[in-house]
Write a structure and sequence with these properties.
heterodimer; A: about 525 residues; 21 helices; B: about 475 residues; mainly alpha; 19 helices; globular
Chain lengths: ~525, ~475
């Protein structure tokens, strides 16, 4: 163990907190200093992430690496236990990458009421929660980080959001709080019913629910399910998402889509599946059903939207449905697809929200009926929108494809379980899901192209004909280029990511269908 | 026959008594030095903490007066809590009392007398000593509630509080006398032995009456109706004291009497406390949702928080280990810090705005961001949002519930979980007013908060943050307090 191995994850989690403290100490007047400190902190954190990437032992991606295991709350046997494997690593890096890009994007245009100091402090606090959730190996620690994320997002939506911000922020908070209350209850139930009174995820996964009677397992899993499903969000718990996305400031939407939603799906993979495999098998067909309902429902809702951001928000519901479908198959192929889907959705939908935010800022409206001709007025912005839309609809050669297509393929051959829904076998159930999901991809092409056509094609509407629309700013280029490059690179070399996740995914799914 | 008296074990009570007498004398003979009494009072409280610490270090349990007065870890933990709470209450009182043309000296004497009762309460192991301690706590607070004697609301507060207080004492005393009749003794150990046999049905009635008496004291629904009016009418420092210290003392009495006396007849008290807990959480929250005044909101919220504290007691009979008792202590410590903190900020802000309406907090984030951040922290902590201390308070409650594991316990746990979500709505309402709304165009006279008030806010906020991130500090204390029992 080198010094870096011991401290890397702790630094990754708490460096942003140090940055936040520094930001708060700088007087409000010195905006440049505030921005610089925030950016440098997030870049240093990303640097730690790059260090982790180089030091990570890819041959042993299934094992926990960079582990830290210190005493924390001894009275309840909860420890400060951090560690990452091949599933956590990509998500951690995604979170570390998106934050500095968001700060760069905000550099010169902070949403009203301005106040960069508070805004950046909240983003850094958000990063603490996000990074912490992805590296926690103790349920209580996970819970704390999972919740830490709520407050900054609540304020970001509530203070810097759109006209309906207050409703959206409180709805976001109450939904998530409800889910996490049940999640905490489920954690405690695990603590008291499992063989050893512990909150350690690794230990609990080793027990795999043995010693807990079947009904209790089903109930505990239901509690975990609600906590995570609200965060994902899965149909029918998704209603907070369109409101939150529509009202949130651009950067808030990006962070929400790119990272926060993944906390839910990550929870399924990291906690619910390995700790309660029997219950996971029992619930899997139902989760799959909700996932495909979400795919179709989200897509249909997209077709009914007038606001660009709201459309992208509903497309998230649909895309996260694919991720959940992959998870519900309980196969290593499905989990690999799910993790890839999470990263791809994070990059692509994050990018779409960036563009939607920039469009909204230039035209002072995001209503698609009033927009048009973006390609003539700001051709580069228009092309980036087109590129992101193509990536989002799953065009082969771009990252989105490798999230969607393998998830559908995984549903062709789900884990070999006893029974599926409505008296059919699990195989029949998931193959039906596969067909529905495939229809979902067609709908996705439909709504994304329709959005592109209305926003980018044609001539500008008369009200904006004379308006000068500035094309992509320098700060936007800097913020967007890494994302655009990654979308292409991961699209052409999906093996880069699959090779990291595969080991962990296959060791995780060994228990299923046996 | 002279009783054996251990002066070391009695030192906290003695220090407080001496301080009270000194305060009275100083106020009488040196009236032109008004700041002397408060300084003396706070020094006295701090001095009383010293013997608590030395006793804790010495680690030997002392039992006096035939077992009616015991100094053990349990008593010392609560002594410490009461004294620290008293010190913070004193800190928040200075400005308010000095500015308000009140009788300063008597205020501190009455407050300390009430604290003396609390310190006695923690050590009491006999129905008579519990009752005396409880009255020592209550009677000064009746007077304190009516401290603003030219204000009709304050008078109403005092009268309501007094009448209810006397009524509850009467009910409780009746119950206690019945218990004495059955058990042939007032010592809790005697009652415990008696209830381990097979007591007649009427014994359950006696328990019922005694607990109802305490339910008034801790303002559990449906015996809560005095609390909102009293809290609103009383001066703010007194309200803070009532809603934290004297409420905590009521819970300590309840905890003591159940743990050492009634424990064996859990069939009699568990259902009653279950109902009180569920009703207090639910009703307290629903009523708090509708409040437009922050003090009334905090009053109802403290009823709801009281309901949470009752949850572990409602399942205590089914828990084998001490986790239910620990939950009460840990919750009380955390609750004290966050509620006192909230009151301190409300006082600091209302010195400037002269209003406690929630609407008067609009836009505070821009006008006075430090106080707005502090109040937000306390509100989120009260709502139980990590990483602030409130989450751990809720956590220990749920832990006790699952430790009991009975259906009744789990149902109560679910009610508690749902209430925790509802509570967020009104706590966050204050936060939303402060940060999401524009400040009203009112010219207000700036009156910077005094050092004492700032210190009070500082201490409580440190507790709320540190315990939230590293709950081991309080959890360990809780474990030590119940280790031998």
């Amino acid at each position: 163990m080198t010094l870096f191995d011991e401290w890397a994850l702790t630094l990754a989690v708490f460096l942003p907190l140090v940055g936040m403290a520094l930001v708060l100490l700088i007087p409000r007047g010195q905006e440049t200093a505030v921005k610089a400190v925030a950016l440098i902190t997030s870049l240093v954190t990303l640097g730690v992430g790059v260090g982790i990437l180089t030091q990570f032992n890819y041959g042993k991606a299934r094992a926990l690496q960079f582990s830290v295991n210190e005493s924390w709350i001894d009275v309840i046997n909860s420890r400060f236990h951090l560690g990452i494997d091949g599933i956590s690593l990509p998500l951690l890096i995604l979170s570390m990458l998106i934050v500095p890009l968001c700060i760069i994007y905000s550099w010169n245009h902070f949403p009203e009421p301005h106040n960069p100091k508070a805004f950046l402090a909240l983003i850094l606090l958000l990063e603490v929660g996000m990074n912490g959730t992805f590296v926690s190996q103790d349920l209580i620690l996970f819970f704390i980080f999972f919740e830490v994320v709520l407050l900054p997002m609540f304020f970001m939506i509530g203070v810097w959001g759109g006209p309906n911000r207050e409703y959206a922020s409180i709805k976001f908070f109450l939904f998530t709080l409800f889910g996490s209350a049940l999640m905490l209850v489920a954690f405690l139930a695990l603590f008291f019913t499992s063989k050893e009174a512990t909150f350690d995820m690794v230990r609990l996964a080793q027990f795999g629910g043995s010693g807990i009677d079947h009904t209790t397992q089903l109930l505990i899993f239901a509690g975990l399910f609600l906590g995570f499903a609200i965060k994902v969000p899965m149909f029918p718990f998704h209603t907070w998402l369109p409101d939150a996305h529509t009202e949130a400031p651009t950067v808030g939407s990006v962070l929400l889509a790119a990272v926060l939603l993944k906390l839910g799906t990550y929870g399924f993979i990291r906690i619910a599946l390995p700790i309660l495999p029997d219950a996971a098998e029992a619930w899997a067909p139902w989760i799959g059903l909700l996932a495909v309902i979400g795919i179709i429902y989200g897509a249909l809702c997209c077709l009914a939207q007038r606001d660009m951001k709201r459309l992208i928000a509903f497309s998230s519901v649909s895309h996260m449905g694919f991720v959940m479908l992959g998870i519900a198959t309980l196969t290593s192929f499905g989990i690999n697809a799910a993790v890839f889907g999470m990263v791809a959705h994070g990059l692509i939908t994050g990018m779409l929200f960036f563009v939607a935010g920039s469009v909204g800022e230039r035209y002072h409206t995001r209503e698609m009926g009033r927009l048009g001709g973006l390609l003539t007025q700001a051709p580069k912005l228009g092309w980036i929108l087109g590129f992101s839309a193509m990536a989002s609809l799953g065009l082969p050669g771009l990252a989105g494809f490798w999230g969607e297509f393998p998830a559908i393929l995984a549903a062709y051959e789900p884990a070999n379980l006893a029974n599926g829904l409505f008296g059919t076998s699990n195989l029949v159930t998931f193959r039906s899901f596969m067909i529905v999901a495939a229809i979902g991809t067609v709908l996705a092409a439909g709504y994304l192209l329709w959005m592109l056509q209305r926003v980018a094609f044609g001539k500008p509407k008369p009200e904006f004909e004379a308006t000068h629309i500035h094309d992509v700013h320098a700060s936007e280029w800097i913020a967007w280029t890494p994302i655009l490059v990654l979308i292409v690179v991961l699209g052409i070399f999906p093996g880069l990511l699959f090779s990291i996740t595969d080991g962990a995914a296959s060791s995780l799914t060994k228990v299923f269908g046996g | 026959m002279n009783p054996v008296i251990d002066y070391h074990a009695l030192a906290p009570e003695i220090v407080l008594s001496v301080t009270i007498i000194l305060c009275l004398l100083v106020d009488l003979f040196i009236p032109d030095r008004p700041r002397l009494v408060p300084q003396l009072a706070s020094l006295g409280v701090l001095a009383a903490i010293i013997p608590v610490l030395t006793l804790a270090v010495s680690g030997t349990d002392v039992s006096m007066f035939g077992g009616a007065f015991v100094v053990d870890n349990y008593a010392l933990a609560f002594d410490g809590l009461f004294l620290v709470v008293a010190y913070i209450t004193l800190l928040v009182s200075f400005d308010e009392i000095a500015d308000g043309d009140y009788y300063g000296g008597e205020y501190y004497v009455l407050l300390l007398t009430s604290v003396l009762g609390m310190v006695m309460m923690a050590s009491s192991r006999d129905l008579v000593s519990i009752f005396i301690a409880l009255e020592t706590i209550s009677i000064p607070t009746f007077v304190l509630a009516g401290w603003r004697k030219h204000d009709t609301k304050s008078n109403e507060a005092a009268i309501k509080y007094f009448l209810i207080g006397v009524l509850s004492s009467a009910v409780m005393l009746y119950g206690m006398s019945l218990i004495f009749g059955f058990a042939n003794g007032t010592k809790l150990s005697v009652i415990s032995e008696y209830s381990a046999g097979s007591p007649p049905a009427l014994f359950a009635v006696a328990i019922f009456l005694t607990i109802v008496g305490f339910a008034f004291k801790v303002s559990a629904v449906p015996f809560h109706f005095w609390a909102p009016d009293t809290y609103e009418g009383a001066p703010l420092p007194v309200t803070a004291f009532l809603s934290v210290a004297s409420k905590a003392a009521g819970f300590v009495a309840l905890l003591t009497i159940i743990r050492f006396g009634f424990f064996n007849s859990s069939d009699s008290w568990q259902p009653l406390i279950w109902v009180l807990a569920a009703a207090s959480m639910t009703f307290g929250n629903l009523a708090a949702l509708r409040q437009t005044n922050i003090v009334r909101m905090l009053a109802y919220s403290s009823i709801a928080q009281g309901g949470f504290i009752l949850v572990p007691l409602a399942v205590a009979g089914d828990v084998s280990g001490p986790s239910a008792w620990e939950a009460v202590l840990v919750y009380l410590m955390i609750y004290a810090a966050m509620n006192l903190g909230a009151f301190a900020v409300v006082m600091a802000v209302s010195r400037r705005t002269h209003s406690t309406e929630i609407s008067s907090f609009a836009g505070l984030g821009r006008v006075d961001s430090v106080n707005a951040v502090m109040l937000s922290l306390f509100m989120f902590s009260l709502a139980g949002i990590p990483p602030l201390a409130g989450w751990f308070a809720k956590f220990v409650i749920f832990r006790a519930v699952f430790d009991a594991g009975t259906t009744a316990a789990v149902v109560l746990g679910v009610i508690a979980a749902l209430n925790a979500v509802v509570a967020f709505f009104y706590y966050s309402n204050v936060v939303r007013r402060m940060w999401f709304d524009e400040a009203p165009e009112v010219v207000s006279s700036p009156r910077p908060a005094s050092v004492a008030l700032t210190l009070a806010i500082g201490i409580t906020v440190v507790v709320v943050v540190v315990v939230g991130v590293y709950p081991e500090v309080f959890a360990r204390l809780g474990q030590l307090a119940f280790a031998s029992g």
